[in-house]
Every structure is written in C-alpha cells, then in structure tokens.
What does this fold into?
Amino acid sequence: MTSIKKDLTNTIWVDGYHGTSRSRAERILAEGFRPSMNGYDWLGTGVYFWQDAPNHALHWARKMYQQEPVVIKSKLKLDETCIDLLDMSDIDNPDFWLDSYNGFTEMCHRAGQSLPTQNPNIPGKRYLDCAFFDYVKTSVFGTDPRGAIRSAFVEGKQIFPNSAIFDRTHVQIAIVNLDLIESSCIYEN
It folds into this structure.
C-alpha cells in the first residue's frame, strides 16, 4: 500500500500499476511510456495507472493480453500540476467544474461540433469525459499545463443489495507529463 507523503511543495508520491503485455512492458521499460490518445479514455490523453491496485491492473492485462499479461509498477509524482479530483481543496471557485463545462460546450458550439457522448452500452467508452478533461487540461489552465489527473471511479456491482459500495471501484491516474513517472519495474506479486 502506498504511503502518501507530501513534501514542502504539496507533492505526493503514489504507487501506480499499469497492466500490459510482457512484450509491451519490456518495450516500455526500455523506451518509456507512450500516452494513450484514445478518444474514449476517461481522463483524456495520458498514461493510465491504477493507484495502489495491482490486482485491478492484472485483471485488465489478463482481459486484454491473455497470452502474456504483466503489470508495471511505477512511482508517480503528483505535484501542483495534478488535477486531483480526490482533493480539490486548491480550487477556490466552487463552480469550477460547471464553469469549465460551460466553456467546453461553448467551444464545441462555436466550432459547430456536437458534444461527444458517453457510450452506455460499452463500459469504459467515455467520449464526453475524455474530450472534457482534455479541454480542461489545455484550455482552462492555459499556460499552466497540467501534468496529471487523478479520480475515483465507481464500477462493478453493489457488494450487497442497496449498498453504496461497488466491488470494482478504484482510483485511476492519467499521467500527461511523463517526467512525473519517477521509476518503473515489472511488478512481481
């Protein structure tokens, strides 16, 4: 389990787990990560990690790479450039998200584009979230680019009838600035 430590600059260090195939893992360790640029990634463009959840990463790797699933463990630096949806105490505007969404919809309208939609029939296909967070990272923060974004995701099924707890809930991090990935290795359980 990650011990969350803050230094003098409000940086926290967390363990991130990235599910992939053995051959891709070897290439990543030799050449570095490449950000995912799928139009449906939850938190927009970035390298995706499960925080403190190697089993989630392994489950995903087994689903995607049945022949050779593997997990990479990385030390991640979440500094002042992280949009941290787990701790939004550094955003003073209580309407930040609504104001950002309104700016996003206005941008789409001016460009003559319809808003992207989520795909409720395919889990994980979150086109609207992806486009919105890419907009926030680039347009809302402008010349102060964001290096990462972290959020909790409620997924799975209720652990018992009427529970508010779901069995696949997890925290995901999308690293945009690859310099925030401090070190990586194959995770051996």
